[in-house]
Amino acid sequence: MRRFHCRVGIAVTGAIQLLLLGVCGTVALAEGFPEQGRPITIIVPYAPGGATDTGARLMAAALEPLLHTSVQVVNRAGAASQVGLTQLVRSKPDGYILSYVVVPTVVTHYLDPARQALYTRSSFQPIARHFTSPAMLAVSADSPYHTLKDLVEAARAHPGTVTVSDSGLMGVPNLCTLMLGRAAGVQFAPVHFDGGAPSITALLGGHVEVLAGGTVDGAPYKKTGQFRVLGVSDEQPDWSMPDVPTMRAQGYDVIAVSNTGVVAPAGTPPNVVAALTNAMKTVIASPEHQQKLRAIALTPAYLDPTGYTKVWIDNENRLTPIIATLRPP
Hints:
Blueprint: H1 14-24, E1 40-44, H2 51-67, E2 71-75, H3 82-89, E3 97-103, H4 105-111, E4 124-140, H5 148-157, E5 163-166, H6 172-184, E6 189-192, H7 196-204, E7 210-214, H8 215-224, E8 227-232, E9 257-265, H9 270-285, H10 287-295, E10 299-303, H11 305-319, H12 323-326
Parallel strand pairs: 1-2, 1-3, 5-6, 5-7
Antiparallel strand pairs: 3-9, 4-7, 4-8, 4-9, 4-10
Helix pairs in contact: 2-9
């Protein structure tokens, strides 16, 4: 592995010192990776414009000067990320094809036999967690639902008719809806899209009554007064909308948080994994990058492969006994 070192034996001007510090800050690269001129592709398994897509494009732009090569983002939407992740696990494990992944969404793919996923957790090599975002439920400003209880009571009075848009079947927003239905003993009518952006458009256009999405989806429209956010599915209120109570505080035990990060196919060489992890760690530690994420209501939340794997396993253990009851009819 080659590393960049700085040795300064004489006094230098402040400008030169800053230049040298910039060189010293370059991340360690694996020998021969990436090859000069060979691009890295990051799959985003969702439609353009959603939280994962936006975060991925911020990451790709920041990685390029660290890895000294172009980093391309390609959208491969479908089946709540299953289409894109299937493409990833079929790729050569050399570090040049990566993908964004959302835990626990990916867990539902292989725990649910009906999905017929071609992969399990062991099919992936985690690189790093990038950010987190709890799910929330929002309605338009003129909706008759002013509280989460109003929404639940409407679903109780009219089972299976209150429409709720989400980013895909068994994605975190859909899981939030299903968990709320299970906790309250009611049934909603989920409407699935291939990403967060089209599910937002559905509520804006009046095609559905409720949006299930991340806080990143609801925050901009809450700020303009177009959306009313009824509840956040985390243990504590989210910093991006601190006035919105959690679902648990309103009497519904619902925790659904997106842990979004980057994975490679299993078998990717350890030195390549280390180079990619170190590069992502450098990006996420940057105040500028953190500011960009928070500007769109995402929480920077770096974890290395070991830490991200632990979160993955924790979600897997929590969902395994209840996945059958969560799956919609």
